[in-house]
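Design job #97: recover the sequence.
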């Protein structure tokens, strides 16, 4: 391989991976913080990232569940841990991050997966609902990234350090559903990801965002069929996004295969942010 030129003193952003090395353990040796591992995308993502060689420390709000998930993965000989933490509480997050860093010997990757929106029509959006949504969709991103930043700076000296922030398509475009607070928080997440990429660059820290479309989690499975059909029809693939689709996005952006990708947004949305289908093709199965 030809030596790629760079400015003197520039940090390394990950190792070169030859084609024959890219199969299998794509995250071998990486130490990852992943929020919201008790269910949905986070649960599946923790297993996928562990399967590719990472040590993944997760979090959850429901007592004991994150630890239970981690024990299931450890039974498969994966490196995993899980702790109870309220991500909207800065001091609790600081303690969790320090505990995970000590357990793993450092932090290389932070994946902000968890969120809990405040939802109401804008005319009925009370200050309490707004405050709850901002705390649990935006402030928690600040809490985790800010507390992890010193550890990422340390790891960034050796390359392969990354932050991933999960936003939403509603952060890119308006919606006729009651999501004002959700949209505001997720739009801010996109701006924060770009800013952290700029500030993190000199330390070898990459930062990117993901905008999921309609992800079919346990919660979505309970909505009326007619509503689900309409939402899914907005995606050009005419099907909902599976949680594993988001998890594969995390896998790629966390890996050294993405070492020159930063300040970017990866839409995993069935095409809904980029194209219009023109209407439903039928009912959901």
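Job complete. Output follows.
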């Amino acid at each position: 391989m030809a030596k790629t030129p760079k400015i003197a003193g520039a940090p390394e952003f990950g190792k070169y991976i030859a084609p024959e090395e890219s199969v299998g353990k794509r995250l071998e040796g990486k130490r990852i913080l992943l929020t919201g591992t008790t269910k949905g995308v986070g649960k599946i993502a923790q297993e996928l990232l562990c399967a590719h060689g990472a040590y993944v420390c997760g979090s959850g709000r429901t007592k004991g569940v994150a630890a239970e998930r981690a024990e299931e993965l450890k039974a498969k000989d994966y490196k995993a841990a899980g702790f109870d933490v309220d991500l909207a509480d800065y001091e609790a997050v600081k303690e969790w991050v320090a505990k995970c860093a000590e357990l793993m010997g450092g932090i290389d990757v932070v994946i902000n997966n968890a969120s809990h929106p405040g939802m109401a029509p804008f005319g009925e959006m009370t200050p309490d609902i707004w405050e709850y949504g901002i705390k649990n969709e935006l402030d928690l991103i600040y809490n985790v990234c800010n507390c992890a930043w010193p550890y990422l700076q340390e790891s960034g000296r050796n390359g392969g350090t990354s932050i991933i922030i999960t936003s939403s398509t509603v952060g890119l475009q308006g919606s006729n559903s009651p999501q004002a607070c959700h949209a505001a928080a997720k739009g801010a997440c996109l701006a924060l990801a770009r800013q952290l990429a700029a500030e993190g660059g000199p330390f070898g820290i990459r930062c990117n965002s993901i905008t999921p479309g309609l992800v079919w989690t346990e919660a979505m499975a309970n909505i009326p069929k007619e509503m689900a059909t309409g939402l899914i029809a907005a995606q050009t693939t005419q099907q909902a996004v599976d949680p594993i689709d988001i998890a594969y996005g995390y896998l790629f952006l966390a890996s050294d295969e993405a070492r020159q990708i930063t300040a970017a947004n990866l839409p995993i949305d069935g095409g809904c942010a980029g194209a219009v289908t023109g209407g439903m093709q039928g009912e959901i199965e």
